[in-house]
Write a structure and sequence with these properties.
Number of domains: 4
Distance between the termini: 51 Å
CATH topology of the largest domain: Dimethylsulfoxide Reductase, domain 2
Oligomer: single chain
Strand content: 15-25%
CATH class of the largest domain: Alpha Beta
Number of helices: 27
Shape: globular
Radius of gyration: 26 Å
Length: about 750
């Protein structure tokens, strides 16, 4: 009889209990200590043992028979060819020879190291760290910077606050307790949605967003959701619907009202900011002849001018926290609402006050708002990348299609490299990227694509060499997240499925073949690396006054709750700045909050001048033409991005994905609830299942991301992936992020 066991492990969506029988996962259950556990794990048993698991190494037939390079694509394109399974040693030999050929022939600048995704909640087996360490040992690689989620924000916030965006989020924003104790108006541009905060990079175990919103309601805090969908915030929140991409226009209308009614904190502006006078001239229409009045804002965002005036008065009267969702910067000119929200908070004079000011990303990821001391460590050293060429992550297709072409990025003039080999480990670009038909075209350009992947995703199907990788549940690791107090030993729950191997072992074998084995491994296997990194973590934690169990004790306990919940060791930099701006200046050129940035003005970008502005997007409902519906593509609630999608797609009535439509838009097109429909524009088309709801405003449709890209013979995606429709253009030359939410479509019954 097979041995049965139940153990706790961690994941990007939190901890849960896993039951196994022999080498099969048979069930999952919530972690008792989690007040609001995520339901994502329910499909884990089916996903781990799914028919789409990659059983053994495989090589694309055309590449194997004709060799690397464009000529090898003549018989069948990537994504259309079949694969030949080969033994591990043969596959590793072939891959090592190809890596060496490319770096010797073209140099390491011809290799792109792709790792964008949430490959593992375990700290050692994090795919990004693994592939980057390996490629650094080979001589370096072209890297990507920023993220699809926050690229525009990562570019603009350092210019405004002098602080890296991620550092601002984790160290400068009010915590949930501070909001509960001080905030009276919580004004949420893009909402705050618990379905998004159920996930985090390392796995937040104590999910707190929903319980804190219950607390806010009990304390009478006004909660205002400004978004195209009511469901972007919890029930009980006020809803102000507005057109996607118009948040900056609404903020300008509020700012105009504050200025017109003399509700501006001029003392704060004089003491803590620079450049307000130049912004004010734009606001009042002195520079362009156009006053940004509430009436002007109404014509662009759809919010009644009287409501804008009242909202401005309410925000000025009481302690107000303005929050901005990550979704707002995933649009053309996505830098502007992030900058404008900071200006609006500065005009109110509440930045640096408890529960006031501006915060970014609440509800976008777990752990934000949590009051917990930060601990570092448990990170595999990546070494130095000798290749300094980088690209913004959302410009991958541009890079592959335009080798040698110049482009602008945050004040720099750069040139796209000529990529001959893509090595992808961790993530699925055919989920994350926009305009997937364009990406498919770009993906044909490299001579070779190597992928590590547990499942036959669209990315794996478009590789030349595929290595079957283990999942988090088939290897040992340590689970730990910055916004969480729990520390986990993640045991290997089952043996690897098929012939899967972990990324570290694959890279170790490749490194030996390339003559860099000692440099990559430092003489350690996975277990000894985990022990080494854990000892470092113990020592660093002890220096902070935090005792942790030794590794063997942690293995025995499975998990511990560290005594780190409570106020952070350090005061928020914005609190220090507000107390004494001369003694604690910001790391901006002026030492103040930059409402006008001379640095940005010096870039000479029309789409991002020296202060926040409203610029109508390239696709806008007012110029809809053939495609009158604005598509938003939010994160799914039933998974993290596209993870575990294979099992979800097998469930009854789950695919194609559901598109949320207002009943008025559906009636105009003869669509009923549950109908199969086709979404389309000039870039592509996909199927979806219509779901009618008055909780999305007319003229807007919502199709979540996450369905695996699976086009039919005519190129129409059959599963409901919105990224066959979205635009592959940068947010602006500042951030060069993705602009997925600037997208017009139409819908027809299918």
């Amino acid at each position: 009889m097979s041995e049965k066991a139940t153990r706790v492990t961690s994941s990007h969506w939190g901890a849960f209990r896993v039951s196994t029988e022999g080498n099969r996962i048979t069930g999952v259950a919530p972690f008792a200590q989690d007040p609001d556990p995520s339901p994502i794990s329910s499909v884990l048993p089916a996903a781990i043992h799914h028919r789409t698991r990659i059983a053994r190494p495989a090589i694309r037939r055309g590449w194997l028979e004709r060799g690397p390079g464009a000529d090898g694509l003549a018989g069948a394109l990537r994504g259309e060819d079949d694969f030949v399974e080969v033994p591990w040693d043969e596959a590793l030999d072939i891959a090592a020879r190809e890596i060496d050929r490319v770096r010797q022939t073209y140099g390491n600048e011809s290799i792109f190291g792709g790792s964008y995704g949430w490959a593992s909640a375990g700290r050692f087996h994090h795919a990004l760290g693994q592939v980057h360490r390996f490629l650094n040992c080979t001589g370096g690689y072209v890297a990507s910077v920023a993220s699809y989620s926050t690229a525009a924000a990562q570019a603009i916030i350092p210019h405004v606050f002098g602080t890296p965006f991620l550092k601002y989020m984790w160290g400068c924003q009010p915590t949930w307790p501070a909001i509960a104790g001080n905030t009276r108006n919580l004004v949420m541009f893009g909402g705050i949605n618990p379905k998004n905060s159920q996930v985090s990079m390392g796995g937040v175990t104590h999910h707190e967003t929903r319980p804190w919103f219950d607390e806010f309601a009990s304390r009478g805090i006004r909660r205002i959701n400004i978004s195209p969908q009511r469901t972007d915030a919890l029930p009980g929140c006020e809803w102000i619907p507005l057109l996607p991409g118009s948040d900056t226009a609404l903020m300008l209308g509020i700012a105009y009202e504050l200025e017109a009614e003399n509700l501006v904190d001029r003392e704060f502006l004089a003491s803590f900011t620079t450049g307000y006078d130049r912004f004010r001239a734009y606001l009042l229409g002195e520079t362009d002849g156009c006053e940004k009045s509430p009436g002007w804002a109404e014509s662009r965002c759809g919010v009644d001018a009287a409501n804008i005036r009242q909202l401005a008065a309410d925000m000025a009267r009481e302690r107000t926290l303005i929050t901005v969702a990550w979704s707002l910067q995933r649009a053309e000119n996505g830098e502007q609402p992030y900058w404008m929200a900071a200006v609006l908070a500065a005009m109110l004079g509440q930045i640096g006050l408890p529960g006031g000011g501006v915060g970014y990303g609440y509800g976008a990821i777990g752990g934000l708002g949590v009051q917990v001391r930060r601990l570092g460590g448990l990170t595999l050293p990546q070494g130095e990348n000798r290749i300094k060429t980088v690209i913004p992550v959302a410009r991958i297709a541009d890079m592959l299609l335009n080798p040698g072409k110049p482009f602008d990025f945050n004040g720099q003039s750069l040139i796209y490299p000529d990529i001959r080999l893509v090595y992808w480990c961790g993530g699925n670009p055919f989920h994350h990227h926009q305009d997937l038909n364009r990406l498919h075209q770009a993906w044909q350009r490299p001579e070779t694509v190597i992928v590590h992947e547990p499942w036959w995703t669209a990315t794996a199907k478009r590789a030349d060499i595929v290595f079957p990788a283990t999942t988090s549940w088939e290897r040992e690791d340590i689970g730990r997240a910055q916004g969480d107090s729990y520390l986990f030993h993640m045991p290997r729950l089952i043996d690897p499925v098929g012939e899967a191997r972990n990324d570290y072992d694959i890279f170790s074998d490749l490194a030996e073949r390339l003559g860099i084995g000692k440099e990559f491994t430092e003489g350690r296997n996975s277990a000894s690396w985990i022990a080494h990194l854990y000892r470092q973590f113990q020592a660093e934690s002890l220096q902070r006054g935090i005792e942790t169990p030794d590794l063997e004790a942690l293995k025995e306990a499975n998990w511990v709750d560290l005594p780190i919940r409570g106020k952070s060791d350090a005061e928020s930099p914005l609190e220090s700045f507000r107390t004494d701006p001369e003694e604690s200046p910001l790391k901006t050129p002026s030492g103040r909050i930059e409402i006008y940035s001379e640095t940005i003005a010096g870039f000479g970008y029309d789409e991002c001048p020296g202060h926040p502005v409203w610029i109508p997007p390239g696709e806008w409902p007012g110029t809809a033409g053939r495609y009158p519906l604005h598509l938003v593509s939010p994160q799914p609630g039933d998974k993290l991005h596209s993870q575990l999608e294979c099992a979800i797609a097998d469930l009854p009535d789950q695919r194609p994905e559901a598109v949320i439509m207002n009943p008025a838009d559906a009636a105009e097109r003869g669509v009923s609830d549950g109908d199969l429909v086709k979404l389309y524009n000039a870039r592509g088309s996909c199927l979806a299942r219509a779901r009618l709801s008055r909780e999305v405003m007319p003229g807007v449709v919502a199709l979540p991301t996450g369905a695996w890209f699976d086009p039919d013979a005519e190129g129409m995606d059959t599963q409901g992936n919105p990224n066959v429709l979205t635009r592959d253009i940068g947010t602006s030359r500042i951030g060069q992020g993705c602009s997925a939410h600037t997208c017009l479509v139409d819908i027809a019954a299918f």
